[in-house]
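REVIEWER CHECKLIST
Item 1: Sequence provided? yes
Item 2: Single chain? yes
Item 3: Sequence as submitted:
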Amino acid sequence: MKLQTIGKSDLQSSRLVYGCMRIVGDNSNESRQKGKAAIRTAFESGFTHFDHADIYGGGKCEELFAEVLHEIPDMREKIIITSKCGIIGKGNPEPDFPARYDFSEKHILDSVDGILRRLKTDYIDILLLHRPDYLFQAEEVARTFETLQRAGKVRHFGVSNFRPSQLNLLQKYCSMPLISNQVEINIHNITTLLDGTLDQCQEKNISPQAWCPLGGVVYPAWGNTFTSETEKRIQIEFERQAEKYNTANWIVMLAWLLRHPAQIFPIIGTTNSSRIRASLHALEIDYSREDWYRLLEARNGYAVP
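Item 4: Structure as written out by the authors:
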């Protein structure tokens, strides 16, 4: 497994991140055991970075991960744990309350305490704000980050799904660098290539993490807008490149992301152990500039201007 420094930090992360959103499945014993086996496989395969959020599985994903940490006593010291907070579901705590985002000091502090309790750890390496709270006060968030860092509960901070202007606003008031922006990047959603997000990551040494990297390849992308004609055109190009590189279509997609100079960290969310191991093949591909643009052209349906 290749390693890469995360932003302006001392953290050395595996180039691929293991995403823990699905590790409890339907929370049956069978699903939980499969999730635990997937975590072990990722760890044994060289994944050193594990991504969580307080809403994943209603908190049960973090609890299951804590069981694996207990079963592998030296694991905690060898890995990076990221978790996210800020999303509150509809009907919480009152039935008529809407779904919303909350970056208030109290919510962030309470969320981190809950994360640490469920993970049964004294600290997390990175805390990300999950989705932009339109009502957030940047100065309040910055003070809250400082409180958490001084208390030793969180080592580093970042954001998720932030536009460049939102990240700039928060960074203006933060004494510590924001080291990550976790955003959707896949063959369907290339917004970050166009809106300045990946440019900002390179300019400010912020590490982009790609969630749903295989959307439109292994499973339908969120809010898919592709026509059947577009999907067929993309599939043909994937198959051509898969044959060239002697691999699978989805491995080509990972290689496409890894080729970008912003040093994207793709998040691998499968609980299939063989797929977890196979994902490492993407790191071995000497992926060409020409193939990168061929896939972009297939996606767009036209050559670059």
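Item 5: Key structural point noted by reviewer: Residues 3-300 form a domain with the TIM Barrel fold (CATH 3.20.20.100).
Item 6: Recommendation: ____
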